[in-house]
Design brief:
7-stranded parallel beta sheet, 3-stranded mixed beta sheet, alpha/beta, binds nicotinamide-adenine-dinucleotide, 14 strands, globular, about 40% helix
């Protein structure tokens, strides 16, 4: 396959580039370094120094003998994106290039406006570029489990059949979310559905839960190939943050009661999910939605796991409940259907003690770089 990866420098984008490249596919990556620049601006840089994307592909070629082509540019710039589609004619485009943080989108009006503009415009541009150059091209789009929120019914895989006054129809599962970032993801899904219906595009929308981990088979080949690893309040996901807090001797910051439950997955499983989706594409005129997670935990359960493993490794891990800066349900029902990716062949890597121990070991190597001010900046939803 010829695979175009948008957001190729990111936490998920870079390991995805290597994953496809390693398996013999031609990979073209695009990024505008938004994430690097935003984390410098907000003083929450990644734990592990990562060479820039152009240097990363040189290291990858030295390590694997395989080439990845990179273009630094902005996916909201339609002329730029269109020129890439025209030059390479990809079979599949994987769209990661969005502002991915809920807290970032809630900082102030300007960050909200940027999130809205960036996320919707990148998606619109991808849709138009596919339509204009090759409507056969399969769009794989990263959505989020956060689109659904925490309804008091089981969460189905994207769609819900409804019977109303004796008649039936199938609709997108009701979505009510808790941040502007998540709202842009809902709007992306709605936009994709519109153009699947009207133009017959083929789209897979992956409703992904928070990802943890910093190891893939490819990134383990050379420490300079490790993905960005954020642990801060803005760009870090919860388990990654808890492990860095444990290593730093900082209490784990549990928001409110800590009964908030979400579906999680290992970075290695994100690779599999995206790859399986690309190998077995959606049909024409199909918006295929998968719930991308492998197991669910409450925040308290994650904190407890980190505490047990951390204490066993000799850290003195404390857990501290702090006032919840977000507006979210702290006690709620959570039961998700996620059979679709398993049926495609996903073989989950679960959150074992061994997986956490390996994460502790890597984080410990970089403990002098931990910025304790980044753990909690107190971005308020209210
Ligand atoms: N990491 C998770 O836990 C998680 C969970 C659910 C969904 N997602 C989604 O997966 C995708 C990737 O997430 P991630 O964690 O790798 O985030 P990331 O910020 O590390 O990666 C996104 C990349 O896209 C780039 N980018 C953003 N806007 C761009 C633009 N206009 N033009 C070019 N490049 C642009 C950024 O510079 C960054 O390198 C995002 O869409 C995110 O919403 C991530």
């Amino acid at each position: 396959m010829k695979v175009l990866i948008l957001g190729a420098d990111g936490y998920l984008g870079w390991p995805t580039c290597m994953y496809f490249s390693q398996r013999g596919h031609e990979v073209i990556g695009i990024d505008n370094y938004f994430r690097r620049n935003a984390s410098t601006e907000l003083d929450c840089e990644a734990l592990i120094p990562a060479p820039n994307l152009l240097q990363r592909v040189i290291i990858w070629e030295e390590t694997s003998g395989k080439k990845i082509k990179i273009h630094i540019g902005d996916v909201t710039d339609y002329a730029f994106l269109l020129s890439i589609f025209r030059e390479y004619k990809p079979d599949v485009v994987i769209h990661y290039a969005e502002q991915p943080s809920a807290p970032y989108s809630m900082i102030n009006r300007d960050k909200a406006a940027f999130t809205l503009q960036n996320n919707l415009m990148t998606t619109l541009n991808v849709i138009y570029a596919v339509k204009e150059t090759n409507p056969e091209c399969h769009i794989i789009k990263l959505g989020t489990m956060g689109e659904y929120g925490t309804p008091n019914i089981d969460i189905e895989e994207g769609w819900l059949e409804i019977e109303h006054k004796g008649r039936k129809d199938k609709f997108l599962f009701p979505r009510q979310t808790g941040s502007l970032y998540h709202t842009t993801k809902i709007q992306d899904t709605d936009m994709l559905w519109l153009y699947v219906r009207t133009w017959g595009l083929r789209v897979t929308d992956l409703m992904q839960g928070p990802v943890y981990g910093l190891s893939t088979d490819e990134s383990d080949l050379d420490s300079r190939l490790i993905p960005h690893f954020h642990y801060d309040e803005i760009f870090g996901t919860v388990l990654n943050r808890f492990i860095v807090q444990a290593v730093a001797g900082h209490p784990l910051t549990v928001y409110g009661k800590g009964n908030q439950t979400r579906g999680f997955l290992n970075l290695k499983d994100t690779m599999q999910c995206v790859y399986l989706s690309a190998e077995q594409p959606a049909e024409h005129k199909q918006l295929r939605i998968f719930n991308q997670l492998t197991e669910s935990f409450s925040v308290n359960q994650l904190a407890e796991k980190v505490k047990i493993v951390g204490n066993r490794l000799g850290y003195n891990v404390e857990v501290n409940s702090i006032e919840n800066p977000r507006v979210e349900k702290e006690d709620h029902y959570y039961n998700v259907n996620f059979t679709g990716l398993m049926e495609l062949g996903l073989q989950p890597h679960f959150l074992t003690d061994n997986v956490m121990e390996e994460m502790f070991k890597v984080v410990d190597r970089y403990k002098d770089r931990i910025n304790r001010d980044a753990f909690f900046k107190g971005i308020q939803w209210k």
